[in-house]
Amino acid sequence: MREEGKIRVFLLDDHEVVRRGVRELLSVEDDIEVVGEAGTAEDALVRIPATRPDVAVLDVRLPDGSGVEVCREVRSQDESVKCLMLTSYADDEALFDAIMAGASGYVLKAIRGNELLNAVRDVAAGRSLLDPVATARVLERLRDGTTPKGDDRLAHLTEQERRILDLIGEGLTNRAIGERLHLAEKTIKNYVSSLLSKLGMERRSQAAAYVARLQAERH
């Protein structure tokens, strides 16, 4: 039974103490209701569709997978579920993966209680929320003045490099790309180094963001 006006929240964290702390923090608020929780990705993928939350607070690192994968899977089935990633580390790669999986927010576990409450409310209201500590370095690199629109750097890539760039954009690792293209992981690593060099980038997270912006401009 949905209680009118309340933000329904689901919690996913493999540490029971963290879950309990977050649940107690949220439960005392008049406008928030915790409708379910899980300690593994597998459990979450069963329980989230069943409880139909407005917001899913997802731990990024889990014993059987990643909160990013849970976010991608849940939102592919029901885009109305907003995902707020909760993590101990400000990690560029995980940040880009979360953005591409459709997460609305990415905050550090060092966040204060009232800030987490505000984050849940903001995400429920449809606002995008990204932790400034986690994104500052990334955004700095994206402000280098180069934009995909009218960008001729793609013209320098071979057909195979373009294919691998697209797979990086899907969040695949070198090993997964190698399996997809039936090539050795070391060969993929060489291709990635080459395409990053041609694009003037240092890290695959930059390439992932680049692909995301290209796709956004196509839509």
Entry keywords:
219 residues; alpha/beta; six-stranded parallel β-sheet; two-stranded antiparallel ribbon; 53% helix
Count of helical stretches: 10
**Element-level helix/strand string:** EHEHEEEHEHEHEHHHHH
Cα radius of gyration in angstroms: 19 Å
Biggest β-sheet: strands ordered side by side in the sheet: 2-1-3-6-7-8
Distance N to C terminus: 37 Å
Q: What ranges have pLDDT less than 50 throughout 5 or more consecutive residues? A: 142-150
How would the global form be characterised?
elongated
Task: Give an overview in words.
The protein has 219 residues and is of the alpha/beta class. The protein is built from 10 helices and 8 strands. The protein has a 6-stranded parallel sheet with strand order 2-1-3-6-7-8, with helices on both faces. A two-stranded antiparallel sheet has the order 4-5. Strand 4 (61-62) and strand 5 form a beta hairpin. Helix 2 (41-51) runs parallel beside helix 3, helix 4 runs parallel beside helix 10 (204-218) and helix 8 packs across helix 9 (185-199). The protein starts with 6 loop residues before the first strand and ends with a helix.
What topology emerges from the helices and strands here?
Elements lengths: L6 E6 L3 H12 L4 E7 L2 H11 L3 E5 L1 E2 L2 E2 H11 L4 E6 L4 H10 L3 E4 L4 H12 L4 E2 L1 H11 L16 H11 L4 H8 L3 H15 L4 H15 L1
Parallel strand pairs: 1-2, 1-3, 3-6, 6-7, 7-8
Antiparallel strand pairs: 4-5
Helix pairs in contact: 2-3, 3-4, 4-10, 7-9, 7-10, 8-9
